[in-house]
C-alpha cells in the first residue's frame, strides 16, 4: 500500500506542477493571448465584410450579364427581322426570281448572322461579321440598282457561291 500511496503522491505532484506551470504560462502570455483573440475577431470581421462585398459584386455582375444578354437577344431579333425584310424586298425587286433562290439567300444570311453572333472564337466571329456585312451591302446595292433588266441578284449569288 505504501507503493500506491507514493505513486498517488507522485502523480498528484506532477499534476500540481503541470497546473502551476500552465497557470504561470497563461499569466505570462495573457497579453499575447488577448491580442491574438482580438486579431482573430478582427480577421473574422474583415473576412465577413469581404464575403459580403463579393456577394454584392457577384449579384451586380449577374444583373449586368442578364441585361447584356437581353440586349443581345433584342439585337439578334432585329437582325433576323431585317433579313426577312431584305428577302421580301428582293422578291419584290426581282419579281421573276424563284422563291428557292430567295430562300437560299435568306438562309445564307441567317447562318452567317448566327456564326457571327454565337462563335466563341473572336477571330472567327469577326470574319463572319465581315462576311455578313459584305453580303448585306451587296444585297442593298443590288436592290438600289435601278436596272430592271436584271432578273436575279447576280452579285449576291456570286458572293454566296464564294463563301
Please explain how this structure is put together.
Helices cover 88% and strands 0% of the residues. By secondary structure, it is mostly helical. The chain has one domain (27-162). α2 runs antiparallel to α3 (99-118) and α4 runs antiparallel to α5. The protein starts with a helix and ends with a helix.
Features:
163 residues; mainly alpha; rod-shaped
How is this fold's topology laid out?
Elements: H1 2-28, H2 30-93, H3 99-118, H4 122-144, H5 154-162
Helix pairs in contact: 2-3, 3-4, 4-5
In short:
By secondary structure, the protein is an all-alpha fold.
Largest sheet: none
Rg on CA atoms, Å: 40 Å
Overall, the morphology is rod-shaped
Order of helices and strands: HHHHH
Q: In the residues, how many domains can be counted?
A: 1
The low-pLDDT segments are none
Number of helices: 5
Tell me roughly what share of residues is in helical segments.
over 70%
* Percentage of residues in DSSP E strands: under 5%
Give the mean pLDDT: 88
SS-based structural class? mainly alpha
Instruction: Determine the N-to-C terminus distance.
Output: 106 Å
Counting DSSP E segments of at least 2 residues, the number of strands comes to 0
